[in-house]
Design goal:
174 residues; alpha/beta; Alpha/beta knot; 7-stranded parallel beta sheet; 7 strands; 32% helix
Length: 174
Amino acid sequence: MRKRLTDEIHAERVALPADRIPVVVLLENLRSAHNVGSFFRSADAFGLSELWLSGYTCRPPHLQLDKVALGSTETVPWRGFESAVEAVAAARAAGMAVYAVEQADSSISLAEMPCPEAGIVLIFGNEVTGVESETLALCDGALEVPQYGLKHSLNVSVCGGAVLWEACRRYRNL
């Protein structure tokens, strides 16, 4: 077994907007620039259409974000919003479904995630407090990653990796 070289790995790169899946990630008030940078890398890896940053979530250019993003801020389209409420309004105007990734009373398992043709916005909230209640009230529903340990807690960017892989798998019919 031989590890592939970087140039070999980049041969299958998604470059055109038409090749991207209709999934947008909305980050609401993430406090860690490292987590934001990790979301940029995951968005690039899975070919998401956009990354939306709201509230006090840091935006490129930012030293810590860029250190983790490894150039993906140049390959993933992104937009900044003053608030998640404003971003949800933009999603509604585009006809997209909106789901929070949150442990809520009525959340559904990630395995049941809808994949509407018009696309979906997946909201990830603050590392400690999660998605704001005001934002949650505007969502079509909530998705939850099944967990089997005692803590039932994932780092937000680790959770993002799992959720975005599933979105990629479903939209690309893998």
